[in-house]
């Protein structure tokens, strides 16, 4: 029997000031975790029980999907990261250490290199493929700003899986198997997720989806269609601009207008009394160290991931003031496409722009009546801007896009051969020909998933655990522990429940009922049984369901059957909590 008085459950009345979002506050208040220092947390007994349950669900579904569990080292030689060129990409987020022989080591933020090296050594023949290896392990990232508890920590637990296939058909199958496993995992953990199209970013691949938990505290922007199922990460989202493209005075020749000190989009928009959409924003970048001008409508931001992809470059940074002055012959704030001699890439939403306003490439001046096709030499047209809420849907074309916030809990990628080529993971096909394996990779933030459940499932009084991952399923709460018949009845029901396989937390503390009730709501175990003198006098115990506050008075001999029925309802309805 688990007695509260002998447990370590340090509940707090108030949320510590450092906790900004509900789930972080509740994990601290309910005594699930404690902070060691920024981005580093200890799991206390209740938090660890819930974490183990999430891990068990992940493990069961990965095994069911045919993936094989391994455990790779968290510490890696730096050279292996250099072999794929990713040391340069990730060196800022990696913790770098040296052993006593002065060898360079890193703490792994992810494991593509390590698993590919393993497969390169262990797989030789097509007979050994496909194979999907996964692990549940601690990862390390040197976050600039660790925050929100387990959401963005320096050390966290991930499930990462890597599939190796012979052909694109095989990769598609592995990808779909993982996609379906993820749907089951999150549903079983009691999470409602939204699947969005995602960018592959630093991973280098061709297709990917993210599993998002919609939440105001989410760090990811999501764009979704009101009318159809289109949803994408903001970094990836496409939107059909409904903004105007032909403005007043279109067709007239360009003219320079003095605009002293009007540098920002807001300044210029106010100065010309024109909406921002009429302005063309010109940004000078260094793409693989060569200057290039990127144009987007004035009411949008350049999406650097899209821009990088469109330019097919590795390094992309905004140009420094000296470079801007050199290529535009003007100080920062007055760049425009007309007359530029560096390559120009323009956002597709600018197609057909006439009567627009741009910088004039001279100090304190703008150019009006710009007809982009007529007046500028555009080398490339591409989607290089963020979608805005209110844009048309690129899929159904009827719906409007709306913006949401989300927490990424899972991510599936088709990786291609980037790692298998660099590290020599291949196989001999039936004809004896040497081929490169094609990879997919699949991550779930396990600790983040746990906190996301709380972010999505809580109320003003505390956590509302889905029964599948609650630290205990039932709390038995004797109202007055000094009253012998109360304790006798309470212990009897605890024994019955445990014999039937329930995990029970017994609040045997000699505290005021108000304190115990408040703590019970804060902890949020799904089913609670109050045992009190008044009820016993009437021959009943009280069963309270945390998720809807429903109370049932039940004779002691019917408690077990009622709890079993409630638990079954909660299990089957877990996704609608
Ligand atoms: Zn749509």
Using brief descriptors, characterize the structure shown.
single chain; 577 residues; alpha+beta; BirA Bifunctional Protein, domain 2; YbaK protein; Rossmann fold; 3 domains; nine-stranded mixed β-sheet; six-stranded mixed β-sheet; 28% strand; globular; binds zinc ion
Query: What class do helices, strands and sheet pairing give?
Result: alpha+beta
User: What is the CATH topology descriptor of the largest domain?
Assistant: BirA Bifunctional Protein, domain 2
CATH 4th-level superfamily of the largest domain: Bira Bifunctional Protein, Domain 2
Strand content: 25-35%
Which regions contain 5 or more consecutive residues with pLDDT less than 50? none
Distance between the termini: 28 Å
Radius of gyration: 29 Å
What would the principal axes of the Cα set say about the shape? Answer: globular
Assigned CATH architecture of the largest domain? 2-Layer Sandwich
Overall strand count: 32
> How many strands, what sense, and barrel or not for the largest sheet?
9 strands, mixed
In the CATH scheme, the class of the largest domain would be Alpha Beta
Helical residues, percent: 25-40%
Number of discrete domains: 3
Ligand roster: zinc ion
- The quaternary structure here is single chain
Structure description:
- The protein is α+β, with helices and mostly antiparallel strands and 577 residues long.
- Helix content is 29%, strand content 28%.
- The protein has 3 domains: 19-237 and 403-454, 2-Layer Sandwich (BirA Bifunctional Protein, domain 2); 255-382, YbaK/aminoacyl-tRNA synthetase-associated domain (YbaK protein), CATH 3.90.960; 462-576, Rossmann fold, CATH 3.40.50.
- The chain contains 16 helices and 32 strands.
- Strands 4, 8, 9, 10, 11, 12, 13, 22 and 25 form a 9-stranded mixed sheet that branches. A 6-stranded mixed sheet has the order 1-29-28-30-31-32, sandwiched between helices. It has a 5-stranded mixed sheet with strand order 17-15-16-18-21.
- β26 and β27 (462-463) form a beta hairpin.
- α2 runs antiparallel to α6 (168-188) and α13 packs across α16 (556-572).
- The model has no long low-confidence stretch (mean pLDDT 94).
- Residues 225, 227-228, 230, 393, 395-396, 399 line the site of zinc ion (ZN).
């Amino acid at each position: 029997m688990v007695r509260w008085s002998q447990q370590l459950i340090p509940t707090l009345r108030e949320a510590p000031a450092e906790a900004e979002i509900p789930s972080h506050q509740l994990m601290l208040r309910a005594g699930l975790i404690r902070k060691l220092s920024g981005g580093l947390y200890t799991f206390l007994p209740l938090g660890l029980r819930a974490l183990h349950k999430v891990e068990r669900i992940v493990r069961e579904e990965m095994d069911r999907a045919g993936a094989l569990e391994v455990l790779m080292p968290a510490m890696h030689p730096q050279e292996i990261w250099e072999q794929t060129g990713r040391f340069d990409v990730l060196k800022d987020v990696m913790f770098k250490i040296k052993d006593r022989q002065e060898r360079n080591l890193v703490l792994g933020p992810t494991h593509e290199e390590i698993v590919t090296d393993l497969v390169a050594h262990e797989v030789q023949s097509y007979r050994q493929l496909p194979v999907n290896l996964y692990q549940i392990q601690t990862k390390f990232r040197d976050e600039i700003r660790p925050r929100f508890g387990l959401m963005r920590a320096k050390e966290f637990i991930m499930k990462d899986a890597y599939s190796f296939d012979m052909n694109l058909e095989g990769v598609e199958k592995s990808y779909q198997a993982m996609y379906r496993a993820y749907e089951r995992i999150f549903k079983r953990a009691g999470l409602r997720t939204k699947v969005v199209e995602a960018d592959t970013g630093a991973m280098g691949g061709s297709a990917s989806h993210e599993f998002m938990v919609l939440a105001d505290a989410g760090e990811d922007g999501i764009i979704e269609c009101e009318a159809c199922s289109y949803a994408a990460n903001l970094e990836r989202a496409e939107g059909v601009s409904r903004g105007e493209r032909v403005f007043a005075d279109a067709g007239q020749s360009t003219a320079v207008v003095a605009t002293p000190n009007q540098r920002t989009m807001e300044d210029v928009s106010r100065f010309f009394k024109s909406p921002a959409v009429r302005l063309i924003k010109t940004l000078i970048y260094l793409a693989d160290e060569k200057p290039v001008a990127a144009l987007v409508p004035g009411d949008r931001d350049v999406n650097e991931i899209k821009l990088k992809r469109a330019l097919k470059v590795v390094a992309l940074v905004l140009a420094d003031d000296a470079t801007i002055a050199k290529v535009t012959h003007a100080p920062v704030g007055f760049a425009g496409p007309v007359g530029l001699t560096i390559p120009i890439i323009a956002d597709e939403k600018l197609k057909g722009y006439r009567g627009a306003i741009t910088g004039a490439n001279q100090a304190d001046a703008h150019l009006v009546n710009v007809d982009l096709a007529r007046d500028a030499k555009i080398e490339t047209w591409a989607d290089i801007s963020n979608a805005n809420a209110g844009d048309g849907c690129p899929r159904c074309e009827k719906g409007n896009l709306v913006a949401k916030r989300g927490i990424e809990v899972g991510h599936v990628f088709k990786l291609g051969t980037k790692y298998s080529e660099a590290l020599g993971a291949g196989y001999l096909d039936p004809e004896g020909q040497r081929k490169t394996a094609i990879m997919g990779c699949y991550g779930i933030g396990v600790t983040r998933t746990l906190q996301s459940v709380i972010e999505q499932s809580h109320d003003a009084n505390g956590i509302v655990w889905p029964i599948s991952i609650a630290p205990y399923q039932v709390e038995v709460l004797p109202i007055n522990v000094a009253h012998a018949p109360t304790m006798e009845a309470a212990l009897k029901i605890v024994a019955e429940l445990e014999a039937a396989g329930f995990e029970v937390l017994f609040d045997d503390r000699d505290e005021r009922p108000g304190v115990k009730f408040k703590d019970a709501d804060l902890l949020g175990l799904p089913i609670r049984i109050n045992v009190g003198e008044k009820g016993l006098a009437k021959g009943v115990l009280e069963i309270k369901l945390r998720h809807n506050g429903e109370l049932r008075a039940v004779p002691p001999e019917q408690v077990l059957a009622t709890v079993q029925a409630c638990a079954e309802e909660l299990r089957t309805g877990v996704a609608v909590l």
